[in-house]
Design the sequence.
């Protein structure tokens, strides 16, 4: 995890006896971590998040569980450190990093959600995406790329909002009455922690806003043309803020009165955590999915090779916006989970490394884990997974090794596209994320890329 408060850490380092907290709300789990003035981890707690799969290609989460898991993690950590004399009065601020694009709509008067959170890799809006593409003047999915940096695709929040609007009758009524609010997970957490129905702050940061497909990359504001095209009223959208400023204070619980002072989408938080502050710096995160992000400086770079143009960070209200190219792979760690849960290859995800090491190669087995279609650089939402090259010699060790190689080959495709767009080939790659505990994966990645791969210390 990376602490998402940006410059807050350097400020903290000058304050003896001070602490800072980090909320990490991801696809698989929620965590709260507490750091001291030397940026050393003092305590943490993690709680897994349940996945809801009502239909094929659908993935949802309980939005109340997301918030309560965060509250539980905070409570457990603060209870643990109480005996060490650490109280909320010593915590100068907390930052939030979160799974992006995941979409929640709720009633601001009751706090009730109109539907489950639709997770970023949910693919239910395939037909809606196809219909909307045909409604553009060019009938091309990239029509809005010059404005928002993104193709029309089920990945992004706008289509998820539209699906809820079209399929949950209560939403239209609430919109007409001015009661409906939209938020990605960061917005939902901040609104609840700052009071919810009793004065909760309805904000998002620029790195999350740019992933909705509703924000103009140049103005950094919600765009009327985009909102009109998708049929989404601007009244439901949160205020867009920078990544490092005070949004509000925690209203109750063990952190009552503590300032919420930073927010970054998870992949941008990893970029900041890896200190990729210079143009040309890049990192790759291996989590549920896989995300390679490349800092392009203060000017957005338009991709000609299927990558996303996105905001990297804005570390203060008066600071410049930095941009990035991003290559997004939908399925990375989730393919390991699939081997565990669906094929019952092992009981713990960590076992895949030992199994994969039992063979020297995949025996020509290849795995394309396109469970949610293919993301960058193809953006083919109707693609499906395939395992090829099977023979009577194949065993589960070959498939395990092919699964690890699949993650690496997908990353190579992204890196090759990025090198062409940036015209500055990477000489090395910084990596992070849960899968990086697998040293075989890292060695395979270095071999397949042909460049050094360096891993930061995970917490």
Sequence:
């Amino acid at each position: 995890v990376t602490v998402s408060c940006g410059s807050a850490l350097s400020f903290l380092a000058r304050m003896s006896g001070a602490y800072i907290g980090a909320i990490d709300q991801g696809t698989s789990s929620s965590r709260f971590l507490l750091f001291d003035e030397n940026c050393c981890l003092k305590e943490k707690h993690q709680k897994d998040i349940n996945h809801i799969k009502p239909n094929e290609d659908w993935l949802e989460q309980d939005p109340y569980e997301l918030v309560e898991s965060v509250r539980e993690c905070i409570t457990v950590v603060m209870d643990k450190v109480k005996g060490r004399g650490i109280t909320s009065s010593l915590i100068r601020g907390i930052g939030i990093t979160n799974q992006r694009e995941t979409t929640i709509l709720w009633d601001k008067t009751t706090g009730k959600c109109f539907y489950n959170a639709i997770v970023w890799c949910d693919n239910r809006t395939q037909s809606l995406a196809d219909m909307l593409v045909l409604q553009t003047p060019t009938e091309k999915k990239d029509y809005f790329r010059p404005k928002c940096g993104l193709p029309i695709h089920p990945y992004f929040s706008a289509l998820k909002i539209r699906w809820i609007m079209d399929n949950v009758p209560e939403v239209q009524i609430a919109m007409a009455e001015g009661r409906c609010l939209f938020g990605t997970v960061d917005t939902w957490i901040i609104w609840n922690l700052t009071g919810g129905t009793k004065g909760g702050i309805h904000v998002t940061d620029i790195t999350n806003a740019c992933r909705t497909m509703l924000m103009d990359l140049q103005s950094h504001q919600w765009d009327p043309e985009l909102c009109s095209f998708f049929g989404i009223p601007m009244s439901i959208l949160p205020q867009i803020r920078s990544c490092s400023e005070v949004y509000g204070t925690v209203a109750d619980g063990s952190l009552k009165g503590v300032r919420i002072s930073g927010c970054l989408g998870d992949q941008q938080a990893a970029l900041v955590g890896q200190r990729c502050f210079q143009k040309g710096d890049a990192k790759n995160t291996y989590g549920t999915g896989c995300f390679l992000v490349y800092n392009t400086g203060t000017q957005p770079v338009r991709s000609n090779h299927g990558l996303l143009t996105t905001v990297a960070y804005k570390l203060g209200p008066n600071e410049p916006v930095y941009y990035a190219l991003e290559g997004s792979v939908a399925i990375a760690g989730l393919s390991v989970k699939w081997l565990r849960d669906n094929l019952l290859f092992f009981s713990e995800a960590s076992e895949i490394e030992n199994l994969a090491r039992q063979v020297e190669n995949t025996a020509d087995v290849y795995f394309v884990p396109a469970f949610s279609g293919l993301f960058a650089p193809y953006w083919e939402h109707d693609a499906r997974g395939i395992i090829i090259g099977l023979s009577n010699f194949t065993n589960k060790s070959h498939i395990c090794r092919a699964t690890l190689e699949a993650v690496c080959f997908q990353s190579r495709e992204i890196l090759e596209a990025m090198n062409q767009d940036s015209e500055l080939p990477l000489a090395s790659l910084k990596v992070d994320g849960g899968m990086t505990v697998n040293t075989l994966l890292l060695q395979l990645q270095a071999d397949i890329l042909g460049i050094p791969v360096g891993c930061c210390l995970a917490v």
Remarks:
- The two ends are 6 Å apart (CA to CA).
